[in-house]
Amino acid sequence: MRRASILLLLAITALAVVLTAGCKDDDRTKISKILEQPDKYVDRDVIIAGEVIKTYGVDLFIAEAGAYQVDDGTGKIWVISKNGVPREGVKVGLKGRVSSGLRLGREVFGAVIREEERKTK
């Protein structure tokens, strides 16, 4: 009985390590960092997490596209999605590519993220 309990505990611990290995806080980029230096992040993939605070969806017959704004506590950024938008108040984690909102010469004014992957809680 005791051996089975130990094996169960080890299995649960191993599963927890595997599930959390791909989503470390160190992998996340703070939205404030993207907004402070957008030219540093343009055309780069980032991982962010936060709460959806605004949404804008468009039904394009077959594909549902839209945008939603994410707040991670350090800043807010718009995310462009081809796969619909999550509801307001939902916690999301996502991977996407940073694009400039408006570029004049070498200056970048604003930034958005083009969503590649998303997970919600």
Q: Helicity, in percent? A: 10-25%
> Taking strands numbered 1, 2, ... along the chain, how are they ordered across the largest sheet?
1-2-3-5-4
Distance between the termini: 36 Å
> So what's the oligomer here?
single chain
Compressed to H and E, one letter per element, the order equals: HHHEEEEE
Mean pLDDT: 80
* Assigned CATH architecture: Beta Barrel
Give the CA-based shape: globular
Count of structural domains? 1
Question: What's the Cα radius of gyration?
Answer: 18 Å
Q: Which structural category fits the helices and strands?
A: alpha+beta
Percentage of residues in DSSP E strands: over 45%
Counting DSSP E segments of at least 2 residues, the number of strands comes to 5
Note the total helix count.
3
Supply the CATH class: Mainly Beta
* Low-confidence parts: 13-23
The major beta sheet can be summarized as:
5 strands, mixed, barrel
CATH superfamily: Nucleic acid-binding proteins
Layout: helices, strands, pairs:
Elements: H1 2-21, H2 31-36, H3 38-41, E1 45-60, E2 63-71, E3 76-81, E4 91-104, E5 107-120
Parallel strand pairs: 3-5
Antiparallel strand pairs: 1-2, 1-4, 2-3, 4-5
Would you mind describing this structure in some detail?
By secondary structure, this protein is of the alpha+beta class. The chain has one domain: Nucleic acid-binding proteins (OB fold (Dihydrolipoamide Acetyltransferase, E2P)), CATH 2.40.50. The protein is built from three helices and five strands. The protein has a five-stranded mixed β-barrel with strand order 1-2-3-5-4. A hairpin with a 4-residue loop joins strand 2 and strand 3. The longest helix is centred in the N-terminal third of the chain and has 20 residues. About 9% of the residues have low confidence.
